[in-house]
Design goal:
441 residues; mainly beta; 36 strands; 3-stranded antiparallel sheet; 3 helices
Amino acid sequence: MPMLLLLPFVALTLRAVTSQQLEDSLTYTECTDGYEWDHEKQHCRDVNECETIEEACKGSMKCFNHYGGYLCLPPSAFIVSQELAPAGQPETLLVSAGESQPAESGCPQGYARNEEGQCADEDECKLDIHTCQPSQQCINTLGSYNCRCPSGYRKVGLECIDVDECLYQHCRHRCVNSPGSFTCQCEPGFTVGQDNRSCVDVDECSMGAPCEQRCLNTFGSFLCRCGQGYELGSDRRACKDIDECSYSNYLCHYRCINQPGGFSCTCPDGYQLLGSRICQDVNECETGQHQCRDDQMCTNVYGGFRCVERNRCREPYIQVSDNRCLCRASGGACRDKPASIVYRDMSITSERAVPSDIFQIQATSIYPGASNTFHIRAGNGQGEFSIRQINNISAMLVLVKEVSGPREFVLDLEMVTVSPLMSHRSSSVLRLTIHVGTYPF
């Protein structure tokens, strides 16, 4: 079957006019090859080489002029018109036709005579005289048509098959192929970006992450955090309270009380918090938190107070000053008795370390040549205390056994004075009440 050869015949009109101002003020116009200057119309016009060149084509070849040149084609070739043309003239096509040209139109296959009697392209797609499959798109071409596959498909033979875009790594994380297309999916903690291919981190914290207290966003995930005094539970989401009191026995001076997110310290009765952990004895006598009568004196002890009579002198003693009694009775009532008794009170804590110096006594009157000795006259039945003489005028009371409270000891600490010059012997007693306070910490 003879084949039709469709050769594009492109008409090209170039107007190259160069003007220069020469020294002699002359101007000239130059046209490109295949064109000459038309003085009447003042533009470059095509040269018909088929007329101007003798035997432009050799043998049986036929000469066809076109813009800017000419073609030598077989005698069976002829010219058809095309709608687009430069300079307002119809553009032409050269068609080499064989023996199979349609007899009724004289045009090659894919062309038909238009109203002007010229061979014009026939739109097979619009006339629905193509052989494209229903899934294909018909694209008209000069003298023919093409069957184009939709996006996402490629043509194999006469059929369109799906293109597996996932083979080309279009997606950052995961690719899911679908007929004619594909979708990108991201790993948990990411979402598809605006380009539908990249993956961007998801801020789970701003999207209501299931954290009970605090949320910390991470790349591709998130972490739950708890406030001070709490720790993450086994589900890594909820927060449970930390029992700080169970971790140490030294958090509080006395007692630790666990609270949600923290703890607090308490003190026993008669004590108050110094800061947040240390317990300090309350001096009820100074703060006025006692119930002593007017004829009583308040004595502070660890964890409380004691009310004692202001006049503790008993016959044959009489009160001569605060806490001091003298024996001045006649008739021998004061014989074998201390000449004076001084009352003192002190407080110590339970389970105090031993041995421990707790109280110092000292002579207030010194006689020339006199010697003083100190001893515990009464109240030390279990031997909890001892006297260590420091020098001639002072001694130290020492706790030698551990004692527990609450408890009271009343000790008579006697100082015996002997003066050889005056042949004088006398004694005085310091009646010391020791209050062992409750200090269970």
